[in-house]
Each structure stands twice: as structure tokens, then as C-alpha cells.
Amino acid sequence: MDRKTVSAHLRKQFFPLLIAGGFTRSGDILRRELDGPVVHVVEVQHRPRSGVFQVNLGAHLAALGGVAGGTPVPAEQMREYDCAWRSSVVSGFRNSSDSEFAYGSTEAEASESVAFLVSEWERQSSEFFSPLSRFPESFHERASSSVDAGLHPAHLLTWARVADILGDAALRTRIVEAALPTVPERATSLRAQLLELS
To answer: Rounded distance, CA 157 to CA 154, Å?
Structure first.
């Protein structure tokens, strides 16, 4: 099938589910703003030549500014790649990390792909969005748990910034101290950003 057929099924089966959950739709991008302000993004990305689509998820805290020090993006224009935290809905058709959903070769198969997405939505979206929803509580919890989570130092930098926004200087210092020994030698900018927060 083609993008047009799949898009029709997304409009019929999937998008109403998100709109009921507080998202506002603009084409294949849906956004919602929560207190904090926290922004959640769902972005459907099509790859028509490969006959697949994927559903990418993003969450961002406006106080962080732009990703990687870039220009901040207004909430109503935010895309998944503008978010500090990103993930995808995993279809699991080929393996446990596969995030692509097949268009299928018939309309029934296209409908089936979207129906499977709908069946997985609540579980997978909750796993991603729930810990990134309540400001400041859930963000403080995640920042605290990041110290021992074995995260990449760039992700720890984000959590150190969250601790700074929350006014928890002791937590910010602990996160920076956990990150610094794992910074690759050539990542001088990352090291400098961490040191600024120490």
C-alpha cells in the first residue's frame, strides 16, 4: 500500500486516540503542553520508498532551552528531534528494537499495521512519557536516578541541567561528578559544559 492509505488509517484509528489524550495535531506531528512547561511530541515519519513508517516520541522541558545549546524552539513548532528526550514506538516485527511499521501490500494489511500501533500505544507511550510528565516531581526523581543509571555523559549533562533548574545544587554536583570520568577524551566541549555546572 502507499502513504495515502496508511495516513487515512492513522487519521481514523490513531490520531483520535492522541487528541483524546490532550495532543493537538498539525499534519503528522502532534504536541501537548503540560505544566512546567513540559512539551510532549509524537511525530509520524514516513519512508514511502521502503513502504514503512515509524512513530517517534519526544519530551522537552522549556527551561532547558534548545537541544545541545541550540536555539530554543517554540512549543507549537517543536519536532521530535528538538526534544531533550527521544524514543520510538517499537513494532518488534523484525526484532525487539525495530521501530518501523510496514505499509503492507493490501488495505487490510495497512489497517492491521495501524491497529497494532494503536494496541501498543498506551503501554509504550506511558513508559516513555509518564516519567517526563509531572514537573517538578518526576523530573527530580529522574535526575536523582540518573547518577547510577550508567547513562552517556551527554545525557547526564541534560540531567545536571535539570537539577540546576530545580535548584538542587548538591544533585547537580553529584551528576557532574558521575559524568566527568566517562567523557571521551576528544569531547572537550562536553567536558567544558559539565565543568561549568560543577
So the answer is: 5
